[in-house]
Amino acid sequence: MTARTLNLDDSLYNYLLDVSLRETPLLRRLRDETQALPMARWQVAPEQGQFLALLVKLTGARRLLEVGTFTGYSALCMAAALPDDGSLICCDIPGEYNATARRYWQEAGLAECIDLRLAPALQTLAQLEQQGQGGCFDLIFIDADKANYPAYLESALRLLRNGGLAVFDNTLWSGRVLEENPASEDTRAIQALNRALKDDSRVDLSLLPLGDGLTLCRKK
């Protein structure tokens, strides 16, 4: 028994995957293909993708928004968990990996419910607000440029319905959040987000040591 979260060594982590991961062959193929890319570290861990899918089902989410999509693994996990009338808007910038995401979504039969918008994410989020979609989203997953995390929080809170969920990835940042005077703007932004969320009365909060740190914020 322990009163704190366990540290997972390789053996225990592999056990976790062995007894709980239900990754489809298509998702595994996408993950393997992504691992061959120079930016492979951008991809979520498979257990994170499965957790996001569970959140979609637990919350009964129908309208999803993703900030930072890369090769589409997390988007595919979440879209597969949506009801038939559900939809997902993905925000990313143009890159060769966009075609990989679209190819796998098409193969999964989910391309029709995923809308990939290629532009700076803050621009896309502002457009959604201008179109009157504030308060319309059930769940927003944020895994993009870390320097804009505090700005993404504000956008997310305007776009989420009351009771909706914002999920931030990389909030433990491989331990770099412990740096006292970080040179990295990304590290400073994650530190600022984490500190601000601790006392933010607009949300209910939990930071999970899943993957590189996953923070759940429920809009009150």
TrEMBL record:
<keyword id="KW-0808">Transferase</keyword>
<dbReference type="GO" id="GO:0008171">
    <property type="term" value="F:O-methyltransferase activity"/>
</dbReference>
<dbReference type="Pfam" id="PF01596">
    <property type="entry name" value="Methyltransf_3"/>
</dbReference>
<keyword id="KW-0949">S-adenosyl-L-methionine</keyword>
<protein>
    <submittedName>
        <fullName>SAM-dependent methyltransferase</fullName>
    </submittedName>
</protein>
<dbReference type="InterPro" id="IPR050362">
    <property type="entry name" value="Cation-dep_OMT"/>
</dbReference>
<dbReference type="InterPro" id="IPR029063">
    <property type="entry name" value="SAM-dependent_MTases_sf"/>
</dbReference>
<dbReference type="GO" id="GO:0032259">
    <property type="term" value="P:methylation"/>
</dbReference>
<keyword id="KW-0489">Methyltransferase</keyword>
<dbReference type="GO" id="GO:0008757">
    <property type="term" value="F:S-adenosylmethionine-dependent methyltransferase activity"/>
</dbReference>
<dbReference type="InterPro" id="IPR002935">
    <property type="entry name" value="SAM_O-MeTrfase"/>
</dbReference>
